Description:
This protein is α+β, with helices and mostly antiparallel strands. It has 14 helices and 20 strands. It has helices spanning about 25-30, 30-50, 80-90, 130-140, 170-185, 215-225, 230, 250-255, 310-325, 345-360, 390-400, 430-445, 475-480, 485-495; strands at about 10-20, 60-65, 70-75, 100-110, 150-155, 160, 160-165, 190-195, 205-210, 235, 240-245, 325-330, 335-345, 365-375, 380-385, 405, 415-425, 450-460, 460-470, 500-505. The strands form three sheets. Strands 12, 13, 14, 15, 16, 17, 18, 19 and 20 form a nine-stranded antiparallel sheet that branches. The chain has an eight-stranded antiparallel beta barrel with strand order 1-3-2-11-5-9-8-4, surrounded by four helices.
Amino acid sequence: MTREPPATNEGWYALHDFRTVDWDAWRAAPERDREAALEDGVDFLGDHAAVADAEDGSSAVFSMLGHKADLLVLHFRPTMADLDTAERSFEETGFAAYTERSTSYVSVTEVGGYTNEEMTNDPSEIEDTGLARYAESKLYPEIPDSEFVCFYPMDKRRQPGQNWYDLPFDERAEMMDTHGEIGKTYAGQVKQIITGSIGFDDFEWGVDLFGNDPTAIKDLLYELRFDESSSKYAEFGPFYFGRQFPPEDLPAFMAGEAIPTEGADESEAHHGSGEGHHAEGGDSHPHSGGDDHPHGGGDGDSGHHDGDGDDADEESIRGELEDLDIYAGQPHGEDVYAMVLYSEADPDELFEEVDGLRSNFDHYDTHVKTAVYENPHGGRSAVVSIWDTQSAADTAGGFLADLPDIVGRAGEESGFGTMGMFYTVKPEHREDFVEKFETVGGLLEEMAGHLDTDLLANREDENDMFIASQWESKEDAMAFFRSEEFSSTVDWGRDVLADRPRHVFLA
Length: 507
């Protein structure tokens, strides 16, 4: 009986070029030859990291640990011809003469239709904005600037009694969905790029996992071993583990010095152009990609570690979100997790993008609310997203960070952010609330350490108000919240609010 294969869509082609260095030949070479070879190598790696060789793509170089290879040069390019040119042009460098290829892997990024067949359309043809962004990030990835990479190839088993390809479509889809849910719990710690290689190389898929904590990669893979789609149906090839470094640090690598070198701009360690594509959020979309491969999504908290995490984990996650210009915190006394980001985009354009994401978020029981709050006086809008769990909120955060014209507020040069969220006002008291805010705003301007405070309203419900306040320090903010003025405002609010406010303090 013929089994139903999932539809797939392919994007950029990938080449993993693993190299060993002929250290004896390197040490024996005259100094001038080594200098010329290094100059050639740095120029090649730098040009390809900057994607000077193609219209689009992404490249990076890694120092590999262990005996299997010394270097990995990784390329993603729009065509096989681009990869072919990159591969041969490296051989023309003086540096390549001191290396030998220990192995390589050729593949192409792909998404599959197990969970949502619309994913297999070209992103430009996907009506759901959030789903389109997710598909785009999987098909046209920018190599993350994470320190560590783990690469391995894999197959699905085809032996009697354990033949993945003999299973009904629905059974495969269910297992892939469960597999993807495990991957999502590592959002914020591990990012992945999945490539298909049937007909291109010896295995069926290639998997790249990127992260700044090597044990997070190990923990993810260990947990996935117990999932049925892996324990029963997966075969793995050799694993390769390495550290990313900027192309200009090649001389330090060859000299046995620490890399990246002190003061190096780590942001230059990876970059392809990536223009027009949204890679950062890609691994963490609430929908699993649905490929036959491995892991599903990945930007979130610690997965199978303690559910809520300790304070250090929470602060680490908040720090990562701040790098994306996202506030994140838990409203006082409540079991929900809130995140907020700010955008200077046209409110109508912003709402359209958010509405697309929200339609996907609503598939999840953990989603409470996502809304756009506008400033009636112009200026930036706020996007507020509330979730039942921290991991779900963090996963959504990667996609929210891809919204247009996001601007920084958390992590600015100075300032402590505090947000009064969901001040739901009784309709008959809305004007009174706005007037009261203006009065309180005048008091705030006179207080030490106050930077700015805005009152914004939900564009879908004008009685749902949102206050964002910025202070030079937590102490300055707390001085106001302990003041008689604030106390009287709270007392007054009991009569005009339809529900108690949610309030989040964020350092």
